[in-house]
Amino acid sequence: MSQGAVKPVSPLVEETAPVERELLFDCDYFRVWRLRGQSPFAVGSAGAPRVLVCIEGTGLVEHSGETYAVGKGDVLLLPAAVGVCAFRPSGPVTLLEAAVPQ
Question: Among 60, 62, 70, 92, which residue has the least CB neighbours within 10 Å?
């Protein structure tokens, strides 16, 4: 089976503080960022759904006065109505944040 033209992906650094935010994929169907940090940072987007995948560490997602624990292997859907949330790591954390292009 032929895979066609497959090339390595070079991350595009979009932000370095308070979180290192790298765009890994940006195609017609989806976008994926890798977020690495240990200080609080924003996740999600106003008016657009996002999916968070924790691949290392633990932390809390805060929305409307509520907190939701996130740990390695957890997947969290942030509906469009939720918008931007705060993520508070409990030490070094790595998340993937996926979106559908608008």
Answer: 92
Count CB neighbours of 79 within 10 A: 10
Looking at the chain, the number of H-run helices and the number of E-run strands are: 0, 10
Which element (helix H / strand E) includes 95? strand 93-99
Kindly give the residue spans of alpha helices, DSSP state H, lying in the chain: none
CB atoms within 10 A of CB 70: 24
Q: Using CB atoms within 10 Å of the CB of residue 91, give its burial: 0 to 12 exposed, 13 to 18 middle, 19+ buried.
A: exposed
Predicted TM-score (pTM) of the model is 0.89
Cis peptide before 18 (omega within 30 of 0): yes
pLDDT tens digits along 42-71: 999 999 999 999 999 999 999 999 999 999
2-12 burial string, b = 16+ CB within 10 Å, else e?
A: eeeeeeeeeee
